[in-house]
Design a protein that fits this description.
The protein is α+β, with helices and mostly antiparallel strands and 302 residues long. The chain folds into two domains: 114 residues, 3-Layer(aba) Sandwich (Rossmann fold), CATH 3.40.50; 172 residues, Tumour Suppressor Smad4, CATH 2.60.200.40. Helices cover 30% and strands 33% of the residues. The strands form two sheets. Strands 5, 6, 7, 8, 9, 10, 11, 12, 13, 14 and 15 form an eleven-stranded antiparallel beta sheet that branches. A four-stranded parallel beta sheet has the order 2-1-3-4, with helices on both faces. A hairpin with a 2-residue loop joins β8 and β9. It is globular and about 55 Å long. The two termini are 16 Å apart.
């Protein structure tokens, strides 16, 4: 690979001046390794997808994403189903995929190591559901995690300015606020065709959730299945106990986790409007179908 497009979110990481310095240094490191790299900033929601698609259509040899999991998700949706490889320079809040791959969390250091990484064809998740009221697509690929129910509702309610000013603590504070308000409606689900019921669901292509919590310890990006975690019993206090158990890496007796080889999942709702998020970004609402698309993305890995 001798040419690359580096797509970066200039406001990810809550320090734009530092981010610009890091991008400049990362580009210099790649050029020193013989990779002619051109940096392109995103200018709003959805632009990373279009930048990646344009790079693919113009015969790009490598696309590099620097930003959070949301930026990475947009870039993936611009690349799939092509064979153009993707490399990740961590630069966001949770950095789930970067933690999963044990990448350096400093984007400059990651850029220096990137020339030694190897391409690997991996599966991605795909969600097809109802569009949001603001015209969101509802259907798209995702690399790491899909959340159905409570966490998506928190993202729906979280103000962008609050998120940019506080980062991870903003999600925690908003989560506490919405825990007192969210009705936790029952979801009718089908896991590989088997009927189930839950109040909150995680579908994971990675072992980590939110960057730090290993909620699917046996899951890896290199297999072709979801880890399906279902929070099964209703109740505000019970959900708080679930959350505490996840943080402390415990297992309540009524917490069910299924790993499915066929990797299909369907979710409906019981009257209330229920949202879902993909890689930390609000995408759509139920009903929705989720599946794994094997061998859909070429990813550079250490």
């Amino acid at each position: 690979m001798r040419t690359a497009t580096l797509i970066y979110n200039p406001v990810a990481g809550r320090n734009p001046a530092r981010r610009q310095r890091e991008i400049t240094e990362a580009v210099q490191a790649l050029r020193s390794a013989g990779i002619d790299c051109r940096a392109q900033p995103t200018k709003g929601t959805g632009t990373a997808t279009q930048l990646a698609r344009d790079a693919v259509n113009c015969g790009g040899e490598l696309i590099i994403a620097c930003g959070g999991d949301g930026t990475l998700n947009e870039v993936v949706n611009g690349i799939v189903p092509s064979t153009v490889p993707l490399a990740i320079l961590p630069g966001g809040t949770a950095n789930i995929a970067a933690h999963e791959l044990s990448l350096p969390l400093n984007p400059v250091r990651a850029a220096r190591e990137l020339p030694a990484w190897k391409p690997r064809r991996i599966a991605v998740g795909y969600a097809s559901g109802c569009a949001l009221g603001d015209g969101g697509a509802g259907s798209r690929y995702f690399l790491s995690v899909a959340g159905i129910g409570f966490d998506a509702y928190v993202i729906h309610k979280l103000a962008l300015e609050f998120k940019l000013s506080l980062g991870v603590p903003a999600y925690v504070l908003e989560g506490i606020r919405q825990w007192m308000r969210y009705p936790f409606p029952a979801l009718a689900c089908r896991v590989n065709g088997r009927p189930m019921e839950a109040i909150f669901v995680l579908l994971q292509r990675t072992s980590l959730y939110a960057g730090w919590f290993r909620t699917a310890p046996h899951q890896t990006l290199t297999n072709d299945l979801f880890s399906v975690s279902l929070f099964t019993r209703p109740g505000r206090l019970r959900f708080l106990r679930y959350t505490a158990a996840v943080v402390t890496r415990q297992r309540p007796s009524d917490f069910k986790q299924l790993e499915t080889s066929a990797a299909s999942f369907e979710a409906a709702w019981s009257g209330a409007e229920v949202y879902y998020e993909l890689d930390g970004e609000l995408v759509g609402r139920l009903p929705a179908n989720f599946e794994v698309r094997p061998g859909a993305l070429t990813l550079l890995v250490p």
